[in-house]
Known about the structure:
By secondary structure, this protein is an alpha/beta fold. It has a single domain (about 10-125), classed as Rossmann fold (3-Layer(aba) Sandwich). About 40% of the residues lie in helices and about 20% in strands. It contains 5 helices and 5 strands; from the N terminus they run βαβαβαβαβα. The chain has helices at about 15-30, 40-50, 70-75, 90-100, 115-125, and strands spanning about 10-15, 35-40, 55-60, 80-85, 105. Strands 2-1-3-4-5 form a 5-stranded parallel sheet, with helices on both faces. Helix 2 (about 40-50) runs parallel beside helix 3 (about 70-75). The longest helix has 14 residues, at about 115-125.
Amino acid sequence: xxxxxxxxxxxxxxxxxxxxxxxxxxxxxxxxxxxxxxxxxxxxxxxxxxxxxxxxxxxxxxxxxxxxxxxxxxxxxxxxxxxxxxxxxxxxxxxxxxxxxxxxxxxxxxxxxxxxxxxxxxxxxxxxxxxxxxxx
Length: 136
């Protein structure tokens, strides 16, 4: 990781305050990313996304009223990395999210700790490029 590169801007979207707090802690411990906004509802998430153009969004699967949010994020910024978090551990759920455009899906129960790993990798990938790098 390039220590002089600025941290990646990340948007957190989950309707649970304690979950957002846990994600924020994990994200900021990496030093590869920083949380630029948090949202508990889809409308706020979309407004924050449009205002801040984050490099990554951590999005709760099953957020009320957010059925089209993933598609809208990808439409607005195909290079934005979307990490979906959900309660299911099934491969069917993972595959569903990936088919819909998510870059990663992690179970909140067993894979939560993988989020920092993805963000560090993304930071390294983006900062190793000369300029204007986008998702590979």
